[in-house]
């Protein structure tokens, strides 16, 4: 259930006991369905319904199951907050943003939102592919409730930020993914929404544009008092941009508060499942000479930057080598190298 109100409300977003259920089908691999298939399936259901009543019961379907993407989540967000939303894949982050953006409705619970919401959730969201970049700018502004005069006032800023001036009168279906995202973000950030919602769609852009977007989100929040919700796996970006964060796990809210505390909780949760990595050598012949069997983290209590980390490597050698050494490289989620180490060559 959605509510949009401007009275008796201190928070710009209030989420109370929010849950979202999906019905998952196990019919097998999806395929293209023609009109004749739909008509045939309808006819089958009509004529087979009495039999199903006898064997399965009313409303029962053995080929589907319930999946709760979100379960009983509650939090408040104040105006001007920059809120990061983090968690593993499948934690419910994108589902939460889609509900807050009014793209899908919750199954249970209430949401109260004060003000206009501009969302950038995935490449293709919010634009009509057959319309030009220019036409889509005006269309999005109208959807946000802005007058044509207001949109024209922001038009040059949007075009300058997106760097797509040469392609303004080209249908956006011909844009590259990078161009699409640049224009979509520029529209969402410049058309003065009270709430800006951004998913990890920025990963499509180059590093310079991502930095530009992060700067813009910080500017609209700190200088213009707007609220920003930002989903990312880049904890460095989350820490640099947001003042609060939400940690989701399997549809539940694990932590909400100051970003550095929430990231610490996330790091602890992630560290629980990375003690060991085993490679099964089913496809590797012993004639190959050498391969890694197992890498595991040992003698560690917590994975933090100021803690010692011990890594143990198990390998098997089946050929003589004059020298043998290992190199260990550690990358962050952005694939940026943050640490390297080399072993001393040993003779065998």
Q: What summary fits the major beta sheet?
A: 6 strands, mixed
Intertermini distance: 69 Å
Return residue spans where pLDDT drops below 50 for at least 5 consecutive residues.
4-8, 52-59
Strand order, largest beta sheet: 6-7-8-4-9-10
The tally of beta strands, per DSSP, is 15
**Element order: H for helix, E for strand:** EEHEEHEEHHHEHEHEEHEEEEE
Q: What is the radius of gyration?
A: 26 Å
Describe the structure.
With 348 residues, this protein is of the alpha/beta class. It contains 8 helices and 15 strands. The chain has a 6-stranded mixed β-sheet, with helices on both faces. Strand 14 (327-331) and strand 15 (337-342) form a beta hairpin. Helix 3 (133-143) crosses helix 4, helix 4 packs across helix 5 and helix 5 packs parallel to helix 6. The chain is globular. Mean pLDDT is 79; it is low at 4-8 and 52-59.
Give a quick set of tags describing it.
348 residues, six-stranded mixed beta sheet
Summarize the structure.
With 348 residues, this protein is α/β, with parallel strands linked by helices.
Helices and strands in order:
Layout: E1 2-4, E2 13-25, H1 35-55, E3 64-77, E4 82-86, H2 93-100, E5 108-113, E6 117-120, H3 133-143, H4 148-162, H5 177-190, E7 195-198, H6 207-222, E8 227-231, H7 235-241, E9 244-249, E10 252-258, H8 259-271, E11 276-278, E12 290-298, E13 310-317, E14 327-331, E15 337-342
């Amino acid at each position: 259930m959605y509510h949009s109100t401007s009275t008796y409300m201190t928070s710009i977003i209030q989420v109370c006991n929010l849950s979202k259920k999906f019905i998952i089908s196990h019919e097998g691999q999806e395929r293209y369905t023609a009109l004749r298939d739909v008509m045939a399936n309808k006819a089958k259901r009509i004529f087979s319904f009495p039999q199903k009543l006898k064997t399965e019961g009313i409303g029962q379907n053995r080929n589907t199951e319930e999946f709760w993407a979100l379960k009983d989540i509650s939090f408040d967000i104040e105006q001007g907050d920059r809120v990061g939303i983090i968690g593993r894949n499948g934690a419910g982050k994108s589902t939460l943003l889609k509900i807050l953006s009014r793209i899908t409705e919750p199954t249970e619970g209430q949401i109260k939102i004060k003000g206009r919401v501009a969302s950038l959730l995935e490449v293709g969201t919010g634009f009509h592919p057959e319309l030009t970049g220019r036409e889509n700018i005006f269309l999005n502004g109208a959807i946000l409730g802005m007058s044509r005069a207001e949109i024209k006032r922001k038009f040059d800023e949007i075009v300058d930020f997106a760097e797509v001036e040469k392609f303004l009168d080209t249908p956006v279906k011909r844009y590259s993914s990078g161009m699409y995202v640049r224009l979509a973000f520029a529209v969402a950030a410049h058309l003065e929404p009270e709430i800006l919602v951004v998913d990890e769609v920025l990963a499509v852009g180059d590093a310079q544009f991502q930095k530009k977007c992060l700067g813009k989100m910080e500017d609209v929040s700190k200088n213009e008092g707007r609220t920003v919700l930002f989903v990312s796996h880049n904890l460095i970006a989350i820490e640099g941009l947001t003042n609060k964060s939400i940690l989701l796990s399997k549809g539940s809210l694990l932590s909400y508060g100051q970003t550095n505390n929430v990231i610490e909780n996330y790091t602890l949760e992630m560290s629980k499942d990375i003690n060991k990595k085993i490679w099964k050598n089913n496809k590797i012949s012993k004639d190959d000479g050498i391969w890694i069997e197992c890498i595991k983290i040992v003698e560690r209590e917590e994975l933090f930057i100021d803690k010692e980390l011990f890594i143990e490597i198990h390998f098997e050698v089946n050929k003589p080598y004059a020298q043998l050494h290992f190199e260990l490289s550690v990358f962050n989620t952005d694939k940026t190298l943050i640490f390297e180490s080399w072993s001393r060559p040993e003779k065998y």
